[in-house]
Amino acid sequence: MHGLGNDFVIIDARAPELAEQLNMPAEKAAAIANRNSGIGCDQLIILKPSDKADVRMQIYNADGGEVEACGNATRCVVKLLGDGTSIETDGGMLSGQATDTGAIVDMGEPRFDWNAIPLAYAMDTLHMPVGWEDLQDPAAVNVGNPHVIFFVDDSNSVELDRLGPMIEVDPLFPERVNVNVAHVHEGEIHLRVWERGVGLTRACGTGACATAVAALKRGLVESPVNVHLPGGTLILSWQDGEPIMMQGPTTYVFSGEANWDDFG
Ligand SMILES: N[C@@H](CCC[C@H](N)C(=O)O)C(=O)O
């Protein structure tokens, strides 16, 4: 499936005997995600049984690293498993409702403390006194996973393919970071994302959540707000003390069986 062009291989291992067998070394996840020799995807998603929710969702980036959250995949899993599905992730408990064209999901409450991002040392996370070349004065938000957000004049003119990889691995971010560049035009957000462990993607759901929250906290937009990404548009709602709600489309690509031993 994909959400706005952010694409996933989803393995359904909800049957307990499958879940027990299925452990995912980083090399195997990266082999499946490889667009030349594997199936090809931005994230590999594994669905397993959960004793706290309807399903447990494990998320692997294209580089094979396991991560805590993925907004676009959350919508896809809600659409796949049905209305009201509750999802356990390493980043928190999520849930959502299917819509005609996708899903609306509760992405949990954002966190702003420097050590929850996490950052290497204490600072104001709404206006961080740091910068990289022309990218200055970012905000940082954890929405299950870590994001840094730069508000710029024109997000399309930022060399994100050059600056993203540099910022992703900066020692300020001990768990690395997803890098968002955004501008606000007529009350709507225009966003591009360099995803940790992947690179430039067509859309990042958690990036849209983190950027909308940072823009709302800075008073740049009002809720609900449209967030336009290269792959399409998400609608984000949030107010202080409440969970983030994200609405957007989902798309089926293919459903079938693959031979496990073909990968890695
Ligand atoms: N594409 C995702 C985010 C996936 C995880 C991210 N790359 C990370 O490392 O935290 C989304 O839609 O949120």
UniProtKB/TrEMBL annotation:
Binding site residues for substrate: 6, 43, 61, 71-72, 145, 178, 195-196, 205-206
Reactions catalysed according to its record: (2S,6S)-2,6-diaminopimelate = meso-2,6-diaminopimelate
Cellular location(s): Cytoplasm
UniProt keyword Oxidoreductase, yes or no: no
Pfam families in alphabetical order: DAP_epimerase (PF01678)
Family, as annotated: Belongs to the diaminopimelate epimerase family.
Organism in which the protein naturally occurs: Parasphingorhabdus litoris
Protein name per Swiss-Prot or TrEMBL: Diaminopimelate epimerase
Keywords: Amino-acid biosynthesis, Cytoplasm, Isomerase, Lysine biosynthesis
Signal peptide: none
Feature type site, description Could be important to modulate the pK values of the two catalytic cysteine residues: 147, 195
Record-linked InterPro entries: DAP_epimerase_AS, DAP_epimerase_DapF
